[in-house]
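ingest -> validate -> predict -> emit
validate: passed (alphabet ok, no gaps, 483 aa)
predict: started
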Amino acid sequence: MGISLLLGCMKKSIIIIGLVALFGTSKAQDNGVHQQSTVYEWPKDPLVSQKLDKWQDQKFGMIIHWGLYAVPGIIESWSICSEDWISRDSTSNYEDYKKWYWGLSKDFNPVKFNPEQWAKAGKDAGMRYLVFTTKHHDGFNMFDTKESDFKISAGPFKDNPKADVAKYVFDAFRKQGFMIGAYFSKPDWHSEYYWWPKYATADRNNNYDIRKNPWRWSMFKKQTFNQISELMHNYGSVDILWLDGGWVRPLETVNEEVLAWGMKIPEWSQDIDMPAIATMARKAQPGLLMVDRTVHGPYENYQTPEQSVPKTQLANPWESCMTLGGAWGFVPNDQYKSATQVIHTLIEVVAKGGSLLLGIGPKADGTVPQDAISRLENIGKWLNINGKAIYDTRITKEYHDGDTWFTQSKDGKTKYALTCLKDKTPEYVVWNGNIPAKGTAVQLIQTGQKLKWENKGTTVKVWLPKNIQKDLPALAFSFKGAL
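emit:
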């Protein structure tokens, strides 16, 4: 088969291949998902502590994966990684496949790029912070880096006034009042200093022995430092540096927990000198939150369990990063979670002390699918009314009973009960614990009505208005807690 015909067939089948890799076996999910650190170190810098407290007030954010993978609509980056959990067409040649994937840079021309649409959708959803993918593992840069020509601003989109897309994404979300986060992948599979063309690319790690080739690794460290410096100096105020690719880490941070995740770790240290990066970044962006995912220590200012929610409440800062659909990036005919499902997850996450970072994937033309926007609007309708029980809250000791979750105001004077509804709105709600103070009012937040309630022992029963809407995803109540 001629190479052009082969690649044409590959292009037609790649959507299916990517979806198999994404929705396939649990093994694939385990290998592609970052686990959660179980060790946490509180920041010592007071500016970082202040920023962290502000971030903990936001509760709900948007993470945007957008890159070459949007062109054919496949799983982000991973299809070019040679690991046995990744499915590809068995008749395709791996090197030809990578060339085809890299060649997508000649097709990526998002002429309808509309960051204002993205920011409005996030605002309408009640989101309050952003994490935008400036570079994923495939090494394709969504900002105008000077360290590489493998970037959106060097392809067919280069003459567009918004060719430096990260700048315009950050600007659009800043105008909507969002905290700004820059996602940056530490590994770079397109860089000759990470995947050296001299050798085959066996897995996600760099493909040469760093101990024998210190110059090459020093060049990769320099490239990484310089690119992060560009993001910190050239793109306005940045609140979060969200570093992905936890297998790029000092060898001394590898412990039994990391090995238990099944993370592939080579014999040598992939140390990129985080202390130097942090010093530079925080000089440019005082108080910057650094999220070196899964690498516990001073540069993981909050933990990031992926596609899951911790089983119990956590006292340290964390966020669940989860997709709205089945994929991080855009894939055709993706199945999106319902607004009710997202709201229930958000309530659980916040009651357990975390934040929810919800993943959206714009299409190759630069717009967000309408189905995703509709979901976000419906989430926002509920949050716009009931957000008092979500935003600016903190955990409370008794945080869960059945379908009801609890939060409290930062000063501890007001408690909130959030009841997730599975069917029609009931006549009354019952929970155990978190008894309102004697003589206080229990208020239905969405209407401001004071409700009849009683308690027998530790059981609280609250009657709902007879004319209440019957298809609500959740109810939120406020009250003064018993002393």
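Residues 1-29 have pLDDT under 50 and may be disordered.
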